[in-house]
Amino acid sequence: MYDTALLIGRFEPVHSGHLALLHEALRMAPQVIVVVGSAWQARSPKNPFTWAEREAMLRDALPPADRSRVRVLPVRDYYNETVWVQAVRRSVARHTQPGDRIALVGHFKDATSSYLRAFPSWALIDLPRQGSMDATTIRDAYFGATADTVEQALAPLAAQIPASTMAQLQAFVHTPHYAALQEEWRMLRGYRQAWSAAPYPPVFVTVDAVLRCQDQVLLIRRAHAPGKGQLAVPGGFIEQRETVWQSCLRELAEETHCHLPEATMRAALQSVAVFDHPDRSQRGRTITHAHYFDLGDAPFPVVQADDDAALVQWTRIDQLAGMEEEFFEDHFHMLDHFLGLTKLD
């Protein structure tokens, strides 16, 4: 027996394999902590549900006596495993005592499960695969259906979808989120199919511009899927005959009409960081070079939305932390890297 058993996952959505691991954790310890990942991410086809909605799926699938033994801890995606591991450890430490016997319950599904080996001080309980279900299969069937055909589309999978999950899925189709995510799912599916005949999986190179002025940053709202309506920093794909520097200035000008002299931008450049986490973009393997500029107390440049931007806005840095769920892909974490928006307590 252990004092606490841990289960870590995204649960997008909860299925029978997740519940099998959860029941094993409940058998092993009086307290179970479920770390729900990808918390505070904007909704997307890969992350359609808020962490609170996923918590409800988990709790509603358990009898009342077991619910009282489960504590759910949301943890954001940092797109940096070292930082993420520290965040998980600190969250768990708040609800355990020094010297407690802690077991981490999991299953090595594929390369995405490597995080299970990142906690050597906890006993790793590596269980065989629990059933044949995975969340991607459910999401593909779900978004490939319509509001009228969801029940029929999910019928072949129903035996491995808990009633609490099925109820949420059926209710969710009647929200505006479903249609928007379905549009994105179709766009991303077509995007990946267009590259399926390539001899090697493609790696895309993009650029982003974090432009600061008077303690505000320049943001856009994306005009098109993926991430339609979500906040982002200006940026886009590099062109064949450009350097990343040239591409960054071009994308900034195309999306915001910010036409500052190159010498001014050179003087304002503080740093360049590469963001290359394999899961940072659902479009495929995408590596971006983010350029951080600080114009200090200079007057705000004139800006206007264009190209892929539906709206362009200057936003106070002290407001960004409360807007995390509005950001496209890892753009909040890009801002966090340069501006220190979050701190590990």
Automatic annotation (TrEMBL):
Q: Which InterPro entries does the entry mention?
A: Cyt_trans-like, NUDIX_hydrolase-like_dom_sf, NUDIX_hydrolase_dom, Rossmann-like_a/b/a_fold
Outline the extent of the Nudix hydrolase domain: 190-338
What is this protein called in UniProt?
Bifunctional NMN adenylyltransferase/nudix hydrolase
Enzyme Commission designation: 2.7.7.1, 3.6.1.-
The family database entries (Gene3D superfamilies) matched by this protein are listed as:
HUPs, Nucleoside Triphosphate Pyrophosphohydrolase
Any one GO MF term held by the record is: nicotinamide-nucleotide adenylyltransferase activity
Pfam families from the xrefs? CTP_transf_like (PF01467), NUDIX (PF00293)
* Keywords assigned: Hydrolase, Nucleotidyltransferase, Transferase
**Organism the protein comes from:** Acidovorax delafieldii
| Top-level division of the source organism's lineage | Bacteria
